[in-house]
Structure formats: C-alpha cells, structure tokens
Amino acid sequence: DLYRKVFVFRKDPSDAYVVLRAKLEQPLQNFTVCLRSYTELIRPYSLFSYATKAQDNEILLFKPKPAEYRFYVGGKFVTFRVPEGRGGWEHVCASWESATGIAEFWLNGKPWPRKGLQRGYTVGAEAAILLGQEQDAFGGSFDVYNSFSGELADVYLWDVGLSPNKMRAAYQSLRLPPAILAWNSLSYEVKGDVVVKPWLQE
C-alpha cells in the first residue's frame, strides 16, 4: 500500500524504472490510466509505458515538451496542448474506448477537448507495464533521454472508461472503483535508482 507515498526517480538522465504487475484476464476494449507527476524536466519524458510483444506503444503517456502531452493507443497518438506547469504536481487521466475511438484527457481534474484515436482497436493483455522509461521493445530498449526524473504517485489503471465524477474523484484522491493497477495495493518491482518516500505536499 503506497498511500501517501511517492516513487522518487533521483537521477537525470536515468536508466531506472519501476515494473508494475497487473492482473489482466483479457484484452482491453476500454481503459483509463491516471497518475500524478512532479518534475522540473523540460526535455521529453515518459510517464506510463504499456507494451505488448506486437506493439511497444500499446498505451503510452508521454510529455514531449512542457506544454504538451501525447497519448498513444496501439502505436498512434493524439496531442493535448496544455498550459505550462507552474512547478507543482500535475495529475493526468487518459481514457479510451474502442467502440467510438474517443480519447479523453483530464489535467488536474479538468477535461480537455476529446479526440478520435484507433476506433475498433483492441489493446493486448500480455503486457510489460513500466514507469519512468519508454519501451522501444517489449520490456526494454530504453532511450535515457526519454526517461523520467522527479516524483510519481497515485498510479491507476482501470479496464473501463471512468465517468466524469470518477475522474474528478481521482484528482481529489477520493474513493475509487476497483482497478487492475491500484496505488493502494500495487504489485511492483524497482529496477535501479528509485526510492519510495513519504508524500511532501499537503
């Protein structure tokens, strides 16, 4: 249980990462991923990387520059332009549904205009899920200049698209539905220079 704790990725650039273990029974037709990040990086970095043997960017949350997020599903991406952070924690949620191909992006509890992405696609279940690196091959092949350094917390993955109320609840750290990956019952393994520390923010 990582309640009120964070992963600190200490080095920049870094070869460190955290492997997350999820219980996925079947491929995903819908999903929502949420997490909080705190960093001073202005170069590109990966926040959440979910790769299958068939597709290294099966699900990817990537920040190429301070005022932009990229959300990948099945190797294709949409871009969400955001205000440059004021140096605080950023909470992001991204959700996707296969039937409509609608991609949603929420930043700090607010929705951005929805976009179309990979309608009819199915996300594979046999996945390597990593924090802190972007996979260019299943479970590896990292570019250190896409690595994350800073603090990560409140990582969740659901096999449904969350409702707007639940998106806001995730931002406010309120009670959430059961998840495939949940911060308060996370199965993980640290690889390299990552430390679990208490949350410093109020």
From TrEMBL:
One of its GO terms (molecular function) is metal ion binding. Binds 2 calcium ions per subunit. Keywords: Acute phase, Calcium, Disulfide bond, Metal-binding, Secreted, Signal. Belongs to the pentraxin family. Gene3D superfamilies: 2.60.120.200. Its cofactor is Ca(2+). GO terms for biological process: acute-phase response; innate immune response. It comes from Chaetura pelagica (Chimney swift). Signal peptide: none annotated. Pfam families: Pentaxin (PF00354). One of its GO terms (cellular component) is extracellular space. SMART domains: PTX. It is found in: Secreted. This is Pentraxin family member. It comes from the Eukaryota. Residues 3-202 form the Pentraxin (PTX) domain. Homopentamer. Pentaxin (or pentraxin) have a discoid arrangement of 5 non-covalently bound subunits. Disulfide bonds join 34-93. The keyword Nucleotide-binding does not apply.
